[in-house]
Here is the input.
Amino acid sequence: MTTLPQTLLQTLLQSGTPPACPACGAPGPHEVHLRPAHGEGTWPVLLCRACTARFYNPLPQTEDMKTYVEIGVLRWYLEQNVNLWFYAAQLGPVLSARALAARPPGAMLDIGCGYGFALDLAKRGFGWRVQGVEPSDYGPLGAQALGVPILQGLLTEDDPFGGQKFDLICASQVIEHIPDPGAFIDMLRRYLAPGGVIALTTPSAEAIDNQALDPGMRDALLSVGSHTVLFSAESLRRLLAARGLPHVEVRIQLDQLIAYASAAPLDLAPIDPAALLVEYLRRAIAELPDGMIREAMRGRLYRMLVEQGDYPAAELAWPSLNFPPPGSLEGVADFPEFLVKYPSNAAAIAYLRGMQILNGGRRDTAQAGAEAAVMFGWSFEICRWRCAIAGADCSEEGGMLWSARFHQAFALWVAGQPAPAAAFAREVMTASGVDAALRARAAELYGEAHVPAIVRFSRRVQRGLARRLRRLV
Ligand SMILES: [Zn+2]
Here is the structure.
């Protein structure tokens, strides 16, 4: 007999009535929709026919969310991992609408606020009074670095805010961990001011059904053993409306949902999240004291400017990064050792610097091509190294690897060096040397079962780039 997860085994032994949908309460039985791998078995996901939510059966036990944060992990989190753009997309419409209506700034509560970036965005950018709640050690670290109040723990019914009500309550990537989402919304409503808005983000259940989705991303959305309910836009809308918040808007943002709900009609301003974020980062860099968080924000601002094609502003921001010159990774044993000399996002910064030089409209085209080629080459080396060593997340670097080599070839071609350009182009078209490293890394991160799909995905990217390189060879 194969070993079943303990919780599943217990439920099978105790099971009497089929489980009701935790999102809408529709009684079972509900059909099995997916059977994602978990340990040596699987952990079934049921589909509710009434509201289209998906949910695990059995629901996972509440996990211990207190996390000890190592310094290397913290740097990676600040420089690379946290998606600030998404915070701006989630909160911007509410914060901007209030500012546009010339109403005084409100009060915001963020449940599961992490380091507190969303709180800082509302406070620093819009003058709101803010309060965070966070179980992990990111809470006190962020509270200290950003100067925002964060209560370490979980939100409960016994009002820790002395009766204060909030005009905006957000919970990003929280509701999919809750076994009883309806009770969770009821609790948030206790703290909501009249006419206030609840803003949630959560993975999209529909995205999980997309067969073309990168397997690593799919696993993150499923998070077997950690997520309880996966909401479709429709099931989330129904849940919020059923809990006394009839004015609901659910936006689909790639593989995520952003939901706004209120007892009063919603007032959401159209915004450009990138522009809002650039403004916030500029202000934070000007106001924060020197330190890891400020350095991380400089890198993030540079990235945003290049990604938006604002090359003159990026050129002005570049010197403040103090980006170490390309070096050698020979003898660098592990990620903590790498971080002594380089930022965790060095591969991306080098890549974007190459882009900025190449596309920045410089008159000395050949010289610009040569300089850009050096940065792309350095980015490629870091990506290859990150994919090959254990203990470092390489999700971004894995995706960037062949793009960096591709652009290195292109930059050399612009520099008037056709021979090395063709050599690198051929490497992109034929390389298999990194496959072994990629396989090992994929197996470590996602399990053997996913390795073929991940290698196929990487090859597809590589082949797409190779087609564009044919004319250089
Ligand atoms: Zn349901």
Observations:
- Confidence is low (pLDDT under 50) at residues 1-15.
- The chain has 19 helices and 13 strands.
- The two ends are 56 Å apart (CA to CA).
- The longest helix spans residues 365-388.
